[in-house]
Amino acid sequence: MDFCAGPSLGDADAAPPGEVWAAIDPLVASLASGRGGDEVAGLAGYGVRYVLLAAGTSKSLIPVLDGEPGLRRLASASGEVLWRIAGITSRARLIAGATATPLDVVVAPAGAAWVGIDPYLDQVIATGPVGRELIVGAVAAPGWRATLVGKDGSVQQVLESQVPTGQLGWSQGFTAPAGSGQVVISFDQGQRTLWLWLQFAVLFVLVVLALPSRQRRDPDPDDPDTNVDSAPESNSRIEPGSATQSNVIIR
């Protein structure tokens, strides 16, 4: 059984480590058992939109998933069966009581090779009652930060972090402002950025040390291969009439 959140530009070619799926494994097991719990809502909280039954999988799972509340079969071809998860499947949502409103997260621009997680969300929140929650479809971590910014981009308010209740208790949540305003949610990767710069500096030093060095060697007078004509001329100048070994005759 595969879960699809839709392809995005800049998706990594390598699969994430196995521990990333540890929180989803119990939801998958409950979904395949047909117990009819809140596993569909849990998958929607991760931004999962589709459930795909791969070819070659036991066909006994088809009626189980057909009878699962919140799943609607879309297509069946070449031994594969595709279901759509009903309800809100956004990776960010605004919750006011029993009402959930999907929010648009920042995506990569067309043609971009990669886009970071900063900001994760940058959107105007409408006016609503006190006690609303901003839920991010990502695991809670100290690096998450939500702010209410003004028209000039200045920070007007830092939103308080909180733990969502119910099935979304694993995710990052914030207390939404009562009034309308531009909300920016980002993740501070300062520690990771520092390590990347440190690795770059070490790599630069290693490259410099690996470059061939230029050596200067003085000619050896005892070496027969040394070219005598290439030896530097003496700065001393012989004056006319001066006594040298070539113009002095001893009888």
How does this structure look, described?
The chain has about 250 residues and is α+β, with helices and mostly antiparallel strands. Helix content is about 15%, strand content about 25%. The chain contains four helices and 13 strands. The chain has helices spanning about 25-35, 40-45, 60-65, 190-210; strands at about 1-5, 50-55, 70-75, 80-85, 90-95, 100, 120-125, 135-140, 145-150, 155-160, 160, 170-175, 180-185. Strands 6-5-8-12-11 form a five-stranded antiparallel β-sheet, with no helix packed on it. It has a four-stranded antiparallel β-sheet with strand order 1-2-4-3. The protein is flat and about 95 Å long. About 15% of the residues are buried. Mean pLDDT is about 75; it is low at about 10-15 and about 110-115.
Q: Biggest sheet: strands, sense, closure?
A: 5 strands, antiparallel
Alpha-carbon Rg, integer: 36 Å
Please state the average pLDDT score.
75
Count of separate DSSP helical elements: 4
Using DSSP, what is the number of strands? 13
Shape: flat
User: Major sheet: order of its strands?
Assistant: 6-5-8-12-11
Helical percentage: 10-25%
Helical/strand content category: alpha+beta
Helix and strand sequence: EHHEHEEEEEEEEEEEH
Low-confidence stretches: 9-13, 111-115
Question: How widely separated are the two ends?
Answer: 115 Å
Approximate strand percentage = 25-35%
